[in-house]
Amino acid sequence: MESVSLFVVGLLTAVLSLLGFVQQHPELPQASRDQAQQIAQQAITQATQTLEQTGSQTPATNANVTSECLVLTHDLWIGKSDEDTGGEVSKLQLWLKAEGYFPDAQGTGYYGEKTAGAMVKWQKAHGMDFVTTKSGVGKMTRAKMQEACSRTSSNIKIGNPYGGSYDLEAKIQYEAGIPIAVAEFHGGFNLGVYDGTSAPKEYVDFGDGASIAAEKTVCPGSDCYFQAKHLYPKAGTYTITLHTIENAKRINLTATKITVAKDGCEGTADAPYIAAILPISGPRGTSVEIWGCNLSGFEGDTDFTFESSYGQKVTIDGEASYRQSGGTSAKIQVQEPCHQGETVYGEYSGLPAQCVYTPILPGTYQVYVTPWSKKSNVVNFTVTQ
Q1: Which intervals hold domain Peptidoglycan binding-like (predicted)?
Q2: 326: exposed, middle or buried (C-beta count within 10 Å: 0-12, 13-18, 19+)?
Q3: Closest Cα to residue 207, out of 177, 234, 178?
Q4: Which residues share a beta bridge with 194?
Q5: The domain defined by 273-383 carries CATH number 2.60.40.10
Q6: What is the pLDDT of residues 273-298, one digit of tens each?
Q7: Rounded to an integer, what distance in angstroms lies between the CA atom of residue 4 and that of residue 185?
């Protein structure tokens, strides 16, 4: 029995080492990363089968390895089931239960609203501040799972969230005719959780399901501050809260209220809508900020389509949207996403392909977004000479 336990310990230790190596070397080809995930999953399965066959239990020093080191190979979202994911939905549900995010999970094998809600809690506790229940589990979440698996709790340091004074102010400023809420925080020092390499984080919760992480806190002298902007879809009075995260738990620090007199977006509650594009014209390479509602799709992806008057389309990724949940803005650069003859790699598959090059020429383009196959309204952007 002791030899079996030692075998399992060695096997699971090797799994941790393999996943840790992959995490520390992002330059590895996606095919190699996928192969490592498959090897790790096979090793965990072998360890489980060995313990079941011998009737032994996982050694105490590795009691949480199977819950902490879940390896998924499929993208998951609401509607997915064990049948089309090789049993990965029920594995995820039981893993979330073991992690403490889904205490009543039964391993039903169907990814529904309850599973999505539990997954969002885990994602936000691990820095994915932009997610909603529609975001699902994809490449970015799987990478976070590997990171959590290869990192021990001794590597986590907690910043001091107590003491000092905090000042949170909010106001409405109009940009291109739409009401943008501006929240500004002042405080004596940085707050939040950090891992020794990244800075502490603060978060602003806008009171309508949207929040934003302050990734770059400016500290002139002893006063640290940051500014966060948000477009409220509907008029009303909202409570804006400043909070931090300690041991995956939210700690509220201060709050203020703001009254919005005008709806920021039109249409139904879940329909994508572009409220404004700033600026509305400029040469190729212009940086543009797009404001709206329900702009993001799977795992927070925000891909804007620029369609010319003669039907050619260019898709540009709104990279800046990844730092907030319920995001209402994205920043893009009006230029081709790849160069002619360049080899590009699939965002989720990692497979190589030739760039489908479409030049952005002077003219007026229709701009829209299609998250979850729902097309937004159209706004115009003119590319000048």
Answers
A1: 85-132
A2: buried
A3: 234
A4: 157
A5: yes
A6: 999 999 999 999 999 999 988 888 77
A7: 56
